[in-house]
């Protein structure tokens, strides 16, 4: 009879599994502590303003600065973490607005209103993140740029769906979306410092200029939409020849019908 060969298997060193578990628990602990310190930084910003220092943040967290620096390599690392916290808060509030139903005017106003509402609720956090006075070195991951890109990409997908549903070229939606996001952000920055009008009035003005821009693009293609009527993606479009009255309220061109 031939000899039976044995397949050698790697043998774990004693305690190796327990060591992996300890490392995982330690990693989770550090992540939890880091999150606690970020929330403490947000509280310190609300209490001391956008020019808050590491001393105030450490005091709010109930630790010394050396302990704080064990979880953040420097001020810029903490700045990025706080910026990511703010961006997540904003996106959590914006997602329902971006995905909600309603007329074009309702959807535009809802998105603008949510954004302005967040920066009004957290003005010093907004200034802290946008103005970057706290950072001690250039940041490679700018949370402001990342946030604007996420919002613009979400808006691009939304506009692109409507443009294609209407049979129009959607090639410009990405550029439009980034431009719209930049306009609202710049207007919000101005408004936060000036407070020369109410949030509702600013929302009205921004919604008006955004709709006029969209309406201009649609009209150039012979499409007329009522901004106060819900627009469904599966709506049926019917061409109304110039000079033929489809209804007393419908101008010549391409009218929307459901």
What does this structure look like?
Residues 1-26 are annotated as: Disordered. Residues 15-26 have a biased composition (Basic and acidic residues). It comes from Saccharopolyspora erythraea (Streptomyces erythraeus). Residues 53-72 bind DNA. This is TetR/AcrR family transcriptional regulator. The protein is mostly helical and 258 residues long. Helix content is 64%, strand content 5%. The protein has nine helices and three strands. The chain has helices at residues 16-48, 54-61, 65-69, 75-99, 104-121, 123-131, 143-165, 173-194, 199-220; strands at residues 223-224, 236-240, 253-257. The protein has a three-stranded mixed beta sheet with strand order 1-3-2. Helix 1 (16-48) crosses helix 4 and helix 5 (104-121) packs across helix 6 (123-131). The termini are far apart. Residues 1-5 and 234-258 have low confidence and may be disordered.
What's a concise summary of this model?
The protein is mostly helical. 64% of the residues lie in helices and 5% in strands.
What is the fold's blueprint, element by element?
Elements: H1 16-48, H2 54-61, H3 65-69, H4 75-99, H5 104-121, H6 123-131, H7 143-165, H8 173-194, H9 199-220, E1 223-224, E2 236-240, E3 253-257
Based on secondary structure, the structural category is mainly alpha
- SS summary, helix count: 9
Content of β-strand: under 5%
Oligomeric state of the chains?
Answer: single chain
Q: Helical proportion?
A: 55-70%
Please give the number of β-strands: 3
The residue-averaged pLDDT reads 84
Radius of gyration (Å): 27 Å
Give me the strand/helix succession: HHHHHHHHHEEE
């Amino acid at each position: 009879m031939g000899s039976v060969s044995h397949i050698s298997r790697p043998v774990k060193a004693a305690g190796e599994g327990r060591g992996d578990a300890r490392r995982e628990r330690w990693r989770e602990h550090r992540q939890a502590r880091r999150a606690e310190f970020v929330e403490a930084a947000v509280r310190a910003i609300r209490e001391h303003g956008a020019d808050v220092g590491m001393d105030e943040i450490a005091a709010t967290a109930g630790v010394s600065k050396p302990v704080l620096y064990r979880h953040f390599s420097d001020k810029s690392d903490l700045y990025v973490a706080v910026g990511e916290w703010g961006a997540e808060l904003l996106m959590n509030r914006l997602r329902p607005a971006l995905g909600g139903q309603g007329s074009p005017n309702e959807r535009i106003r809802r998105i603008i209103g949510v954004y302005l509402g967040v920066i009004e609720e957290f003005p010093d956090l907004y200034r802290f993140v946008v103005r970057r006075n706290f950072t001690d070195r250039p940041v490679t991951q700018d949370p402001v740029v990342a946030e604007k890109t996420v919002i613009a990409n979400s808006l691009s997908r939304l506009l692109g769906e409507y443009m294609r549903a209407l049979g129009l070229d959607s090639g410009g939606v990405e550029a439009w979306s980034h431009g719209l996001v930049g306009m609202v952000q710049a207007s919000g920055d101005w408004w936060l410092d000036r407070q020369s009008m109410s949030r509702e009035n600013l929302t009205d003005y921004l919604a008006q200029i955004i709709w006029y821009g969209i309406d201009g693009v649609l009209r150039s293609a012979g499409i007329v939409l009522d901004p106060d009527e819900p627009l469904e993606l599966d709506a049926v479009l019917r061409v109304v020849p110039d000079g033929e009255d489809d209804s007393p309220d419908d101008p010549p061109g391409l009218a929307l019908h459901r």
